Amino acid sequence: MAPTAITTSLTNNTATVTGNGVASLILYPDIATTTGVNLCVGDQSTFTQTTPGGTWSSSDASIATVSSSTGMSIVVTAVSSGTANISYTAAAGYWSFVTVTVNTAPAPIAGPSNVCVSQTINMTDITPAGTWSSANTSIATIASTGVLTGVTPGTVIISYTLPTGCSDTATVIVNPFPAPIGGTLSVCMGSVTTLTDAVPGGTWSSVTTTVATIDPVTGMVTPVSPGVTTIAYGFTASCFLTTTVTVNALPFIGPLTSTNPTTCGGSDGSISFAGPTLGVSYLVNYDFNGTLASPITVPVGSSGQLVINMPSTGLLLAGTYSNIYITNTTTGCVSAPAGPITLTDPPIPPTPEITSVPICFHQTLFLEATDALGGGTYAWTGPDGFTSGIYNPSIVGAGYNNTGTYSVIYTLQNCVSLPGTINITIQAPPQLTNVTPSQTIPYGTSIQLYATNALYYTWTPNDGTLNDPNINFPIATPFTTTTYTVYGMNQYGCRDTAYVTIVVDSVFHGVIPTAFTPNGDGRNDIFHPIGFDFHRIVEFTVFNRWGQQIFYSNNINDGWDGTFNGVPQEMGTYYYNIIVAQPDGMMENKIYKGSVTLIR
């Protein structure tokens, strides 16, 4: 009886059939792994099998190694990126293998390990193409760029994962951050002030304990000496806020200085001194010519000076001021008295200085006098009956009649200066001569432009068609009709203007022959248009009398030699069609049609 067919199915794809239909099966060892065959550099995976007595091996130990060559279970360690076959060979000699793919692991994550709530830090990894993630976004979030933002206090694990699944992690601690520091930041010697913060649990400290100390728990500031100290409140070396506390000494009046009245016989003087704190107002007491004046409140100016004025007029009269003392309206601290000091009337105002610049005929003449004291008036006189009452008068369209000496006096509350003077000369502009007349030139040619009778020259437009726009005789090569403007200037900056229009003629003036003799004698052997120097041939065709096209070209250098497909054509009349493009590209194409006689 014939044996029946035997069907086998093996995972490792090996079966052999021996005589009379008996199948001998070789069962290859079955390899299993705990974490798969896709590993990252540095990963380990346990490989197991159920066939005892065999040996393990790696096809490339530089990529993956086995922990032992024998045993039912081994550990495969990923060494470097690539693929390696992990094989198990049974004692009987049959074997099986698993291909392990090792992927590159990202470099270690770099960046700070601490951050404050609501602040950010930058986490980086030099391995590209990875993705950032936070294990707990309620503690910290991280953007795709690696910018980590603290959300609430706590510890969070940050991961950087490559597309292969390989990743690295880092631990970041999110610390609390203080609220803005509250409390009075200015204190007098002998007093105390207490600072507060809405976020509890932090520690207070003073940077300059020689100025003020602070209780680390209660925040009470005790002055030690006048000055400024930085007060810090926070939780870690990076999660803290600072403010400055100023310890004020008793107000001090420095050397007295005065501003005398600014008018002759006027009463607008003042007394000032350094010492008071900038930005603070003070109550000022003083005697005027031996009589107690009413106290006034005066702020310290931006210069750090305290300026005293009379309460009734807002000004100080000339006289003697004594027994001056101040009270700090913020701290209540009172200074020691100062004075006396005496104010006197001002001197005569200085002579004004006049500035002007050289001007040209029919331009605007600008005059300006210095304002040494401010608040005064000016009186100008000059040629041709000129007068003005401002410090910077002008004369529009000045003519030669405005040449001469100008004088100004400065009056400040009855104090009159000596006159200041200046001599003004109205300069004549140049008159351009020998200017090139407007004219027409053929396309592609140049023309030399001229202008004379100036010191400096400027031609426009400076569009590349002029060889030098800053000389009086440039060479112009326009390709389209152009109007050139020339400015001529003298040594005073006065200028004249002229215009030259160059019309560019791009019309075809060539000749199309009416006959040619292609007999090889070197004379009139080729039929083509003559004189298309700056034109472009769009199409050049020749037809016989039956309308058959026997020649075509779009090259200006080509012509018909009297043949068609290499065969000389018979004598007779032929017809041409020539389409020409204008060189400036601004006009429509020109079409020439006609006949030519072929003579042999």
TrEMBL record:
InterPro entries: Big_2, Ig-like_fold, Invasin/intimin_cell_adhesion, T9SS_type_B
Residue stretches making up the BIG2 domain: 116-165
Transmembrane segments: none
Domain of life: Bacteria
Protein name (record): BIG2 domain-containing protein
